[in-house]
Amino acid sequence: MSLSQPRTKANSCLFCGDALKAPTKCTYCGFKFCDEHVQTENHQCGKTRYAEYVRKSDADSIPNLASGQFLVVCDMCGYRSAIGSLIEFAGEELTQHMQIVGCSGHTYLEEVGDSPQFHSQSVTVKPSPRLVEPVIPSSGQESIVDQLSKLAILKETGTLSDEEFLFIKKEIIKRLK
To answer: Is the predicted pLDDT of residue 128 greater than 50, yes or no?
Structure first.
């Protein structure tokens, strides 16, 4: 890079800010990084952060982390996202589901497509007959009221559809009986 060319975000490493002579784009997120930070683990790539949760349908399939659409699927309580979204958003939804409902270890991301028109397509939510085992609040767990409050916030912010909200709320209330 010549000395007369000003340093801008377009010619700087997004992670460390160093000026780039030959910027390299990350294969997954598309941002520019220096040689030291171009590897996904070196710049905390949002596209690969949740790759470990992607359920593999077969050994030969490679998920499209860059532009694929993913659903959150819980084998424990039957939860399923209403619509597919990019992996970084589906991963956040997965994390919230595991923290609020408590289904960790049985929740996965399932790739459903990578075309732009899928994002607006709605997927019907069909609750599984398998239900969450009752969790009785103890000193280390949230109370039912706290869980319902967080659930209401997720509905208000649009993270959960009305149908998902009602299903999870019903399961939480069953725990009171």
So the answer is: no
Domain membership of residue 17 as a residue range? 1-45
Distances (CA, A) of 149 to 17, 65, 95, 101, 142: 40, 32, 17, 12, 11
Q: Taking Cα atoms as reference points, which of 7, 11, 13 lies closest to residue 39? A: 13
Asked whether residue 3 falls in the same domain as residue 64, the answer is no
Same domain? For 76 and 149 the reply is yes
The sign of the CA dihedral 77, 149, 165, 157 is negative
Query: What is the helix (H) or strand (E) element at residue 162, kind and residue range?
Result: helix 162-174
* Spacing of C-alpha 129 from chain mean position: 24
Task: State residue 9's pLDDT score.
Answer: 64
pLDDT of residue 140: 44
Q: Say whether both 69 and 37 belong to one domain.
A: no
Same domain, yes or no, for 82 and 124?
yes
Q: Say if residue 10 is in the same domain as residue 58.
A: no
Q: Is the dihedral of CA 167, 170, 175, 177 positive or negative?
A: negative
Q: Go through 26-53 and write b for each residue having 16 or more CB atoms within 10 A of its CB, e for each that does not.
A: bebbebbbbeebbebeebebbbbbbeeb
Structural domain count of the chain: 2
Q: For residues 28 and 12, give the distance between their C-alpha atoms in angstroms, rounded to a whole number.
A: 18
Q: What is the mean pLDDT of the chain?
A: 76
